[in-house]
Amino acid sequence: MGDFNEILTGDEHSLYDQMSVVPQGMRDLQNVVEHCSFSDMQSHGPLYTWCNKREFGLICKKLDRILVNDTWLTAYQQSYGVFEVGGCSDHLRCRIKFGGDRPKLQRPFKFTNALVSDPSFLPMVQEYWESTEQLYHSTSALYRFSKKLKAFNPQIKKLCREKLGGLEQKTKEALAHLCTCQLETLQNPTEQAMRNESIAYSRWLFVLGLEEKYLKQKSKLHWLRVRDGNNKVFHHAAKVR
């Protein structure tokens, strides 16, 4: 596949009917294709794949192609090429698809566990559950339950962005505010200053707890993704020792 810099048939040149002789390069490419029993892979896109980009004397040709043999056609019966514009080149770009679209992965329902610590989480769940269709014991109950959870997921994601977005920065800001309140208490010891410090301390502990839960879950998910690699590393380290 690629730029063969030659056309294979006359209709692959926009001005072929104005040419007086058949180009030698065209004959050579035809001989190669015939000798090797090649054929063009089925494809989508414009016939012409190259343009000289001239306003006067405009020429378009099919110079790019995907040639396959019988073995390929037997092994990859559903394969096809796609020729599409790329913007930055006088040639179309090309990609090969080897078959039908891949089935979508069925992802499990999951969310950041730290979110349950937020006071607004349970009321939100209750309001959603009571406002949607009730579930009864039946053969389709589990399916309808999964659909209900899936429909609820956008609300959880929105709450997660609002409450846990920029969590690291929020933790730093809560600590900085606590330090400011502590300094105020020491410089001007009053009951109000102490109350402000106590509130700031509770806020910092709460945000810190959320961050800790979030990082624990994140590290656990990362471990599950790379556990095979970790096992190999530990096994190798044990052998070295």
Count of structural domains? 3
Helicity range: 40-55%
CATH class of the largest domain: Alpha Beta
> Termini separation (Å)?
51 Å
Overall pLDDT level: 81
What structural class should be given to the helix and strand makeup? mainly alpha
CATH topology of the largest domain, which one?
A: Deoxyribonuclease I, Chain A
- The rounded Rg comes to 33 Å
Q: β content, as a range?
A: 5-15%
Superfamily (CATH H level) name of the largest domain: Endonuclease/exonuclease/phosphatase
Q: What is the molecular shape?
A: elongated
Structure description:
The structure is a single chain. Mean pLDDT is 81; it is low at 228-241. It contains six helices and nine strands, in the order E-H-E-E-E-E-E-E-H-E-E-H-H-H-H. The chain has helices spanning 24-35, 70-75, 121-131, 141-164, 167-187, 191-240; strands spanning 2-3, 39-40, 43-44, 50-51, 60-61, 64-65, 67-68, 80-84, 93-97. By secondary structure, it is mainly α. The strands form four sheets. The chain has a three-stranded mixed beta sheet, with no helix packed on it. It has three domains: 2-97, Deoxyribonuclease I, Chain A (4-Layer Sandwich); 112-165, no CATH class; 166-241. The longest helix is centred in the last third of the chain and has 50 residues, at 191-240.
Secondary-structure blueprint:
Blueprint: E1 2-3, H1 24-35, E2 39-40, E3 43-44, E4 50-51, E5 60-61, E6 64-65, E7 67-68, H2 70-75, E8 80-84, E9 93-97, H3 121-131, H4 141-164, H5 167-187, H6 191-240
Parallel strand pairs: 3-8
Antiparallel strand pairs: 1-6, 2-7, 4-5, 8-9
